[in-house]
Amino acid sequence: MQLAREDIAALIPHSGAMCLLDGVIVWDSGKIGCVSACHRATDNPLRRRGMLGGLSGIELAAQAMALHGRLAAAGGERPRAGYLVSLRDVVCRAPRLDCIDGDLVISAERLAGDERQALYRFAVEGGGAVLLDGRAAVILTAPPP
Which end of the chain has the lower number of beta carbons within 10 A, N or C? Predict the structure, then answer.
C-alpha cells in the first residue's frame, strides 16, 4: 500500500470518521486507486437509519479526487480547494454499500482540467462488481494564503 489512512488524513481536509479512505494502492499524475472499509463501520457519518446508501459512494470518489489533486500538485504545492459542482452519467447499481463484503476499491481518473477546474471519471467497486460510476466536475477556488 502506497499510503495509509493516517497519511491520507494529513493530506485532505476530511478528518476523524469523515476521512473515508483507508489506503492508496496506486496513483500517478492522471489517476488514483484507493481502498476503503468504511462502508462496514457502524460509526460511518453517512449512515442513515442504520444503512449506508449506494450514492454515498460519491463521497468516497470525491475524497479520492481531492487526494489525487493533492498528490499530483505541481512542485508539491498545496492545491486549490475544490468543490464538486456537477455529476454526469452516474449509475448506481447497489442500493446499499453496507451489505458489501470485503473492501471497496475507489478509482478516479482525471480526464481534463486546468488551474480552475477538473473533470474526473470515477468508479466504486466491491464484491466483484462496479457498484457506482460516473463523471464529476470540480471547480477549484483560489489557493489558501
Answer: C
Residue 144 · residue 81 · CB < 8 Å: yes
pLDDT in tens, 17-29: 899 999 999 999 9
Domains of the chain: 3-140 (3.10.129.10)
As a whole number of angstroms, the distance between CA 33 and CA 113 comes to: 19
Q: List all residues 6 or more positions away from 71 whose beta carbon is below 8 Å from its beta carbon.
A: 11, 24, 27, 32
Angle (CA) 22 24 30, round 5°: 140
The 3-state secondary structure of 71-93 reads HHCHHHCCCCCEEEEEEEEEEEC
For 65-98, how does the pLDDT look when each residue is reduced to its tens digit (9 = 90+)?
999 988 987 555 565 678 899 999 999 999 999 9
| Residue carrying C-alpha cell 449512515 | 47
